[in-house]
Specification:
Length: 209
Amino acid sequence: MSFHDIRLPARLAFGSTGGVERRTEVAQLANGFEQRNTPWAHGRRRWLIGAAIKSLAEAAELVAFFEARRGRLFAFRFRDFADWRSAPAALPITALDQQVGVGDGETAAFQLCKTYGAGEHAYVRPITRPVADTVTVAVDGTPLDPSAFALDAASGVVTLDAPPGEGAAVTAGFAFDVPVRFDTDRLDITLEGFDAGRVVAVPLVEVRA
């Protein structure tokens, strides 16, 4: 995937709207029942940004970022301020936030993930763009020294120096971004004064990483 490891400046995303979408195929049967299925294992997130941009300076900054990404060509990091951390909003990030695996005595690499809901219907979302300096890991409740594991920040995989023992819970805490791209090859800016401008809503869409 063509990806630039840079985050869209937060000030350019103020006022954004968006969230997660799913794709469900519904077939209506002759007997009045229906069958539902989905081709997507994971949701996909979309946003509209630019609503809070009022100055020509900020509009120019967005244009520069857009041009550097060549429009839709290159993906980049986006901070979804509604969902960007392993812990609940009011709590600090800790190494016990999310279970990412169970030791078997052989496996040392684990994919960072975030679980939504509980029980058999819980959804587990892979996290592929963690913020490197926020990642902490614990085995059976004991936090590991940062030197005891390595992080692949391009995939969200953590590799422990030693495989956890059989049945040992591997947990992690982290902040994360979403890999996105512009979903347009055009930006429209309205001049509203000598130093005032308005950006027409700019769509972003999550990319698989």
